[in-house]
Amino acid sequence: MCIHISMADELPAIAVWDPDEVSIRVARGFRVRDALQEVRDILMIDLGAPVSQGDVLHCFCGMRVELPHELRPCVTPARAG
Known about the structure:
By secondary structure, the chain is of the alpha+beta class. It is built from one helix and five strands. The chain has one helix at residues 32-46, and strands at 4-8, 15-18, 23-27, 57-58, 64-65. The strands form two sheets. Strands 1-3-2 form a three-stranded mixed β-sheet, covered by helices on one side. The longest helix is centred in the middle third of the chain and has 15 residues, at 32-46.
């Protein structure tokens, strides 16, 4: 089963692994870069997931992990003209 990532309020840390739900809960209110680094560390160091590059994260099974919209990098639309 692949890991799910969700946003939560009032967590004791930036990101928390929940083995019962097979999920990582990420606290709101932190910089996206810091939150992504915490999630990456949990996936790779604690759970043995393959090394992830950039904003693409992988589950320990090798599948890509979907991020909540709050953690997705902003994409600036191209200007017309």
